[in-house]
């Protein structure tokens, strides 16, 4: 009887140890699964915040460069029926800083009309600009959006733009790094429009008066040419808007070639 009791106790002890080992194994596997999920989540966040943005920015810059090259090629290639003109040595090749800006028609939603260069943001910065400020049509896939109803580059009034500060290539990520008199150049088929940065301001998302013809001045007719760039602030949040104001400096027709301020940028 003693041997039978000992055998029963031994079997129960083995079963208890087996259950303990099974429980430990299950907890270990579950822990490894949670750890793996956590690592994958961190990798996804890293992709979204850094790697994906870096790739998105490079893609947008490449598209902007391609658009610029296409406009240059179209201008340099005369129609087959048009003879090439002989250069007149009496005409100066120096761009006229007082050239009257060519004002393009307002671009439709998602229609690319320009490329923006901001040397402060890097030599490779050349981001496409398109009509509209909706995320799915303009801001996410293209880059910089133009607020409908506001003037086009070079026109009197307030040319108003928007872009992401984070994600989707984050075109306005470095907007807070702008310094007084930094050049902001917009290229279109017609030529180059140069603006000079003046100041930054932080406002509530409801402060739409920054888009007025004279920013934040109601019922005032514009007698100057302004540029307003808007984005989210702080980064990764939407509680405020960061606004960068600039003033128009000059227009360079395409026939005169790129302005000096672009030297070494492209």
Automatic annotation (TrEMBL):
Segments passing through the bilayer: 24-50
Pfam families linked: Sortase (PF04203)
Keywords from the named record: Hydrolase, Membrane, Transmembrane, Transmembrane helix
SUPFAM superfamilies linked: Sortase
Bias (Low complexity) ranges: 76-99
Segments for region (Disordered): 76-100
The protein's name: Class E sortase
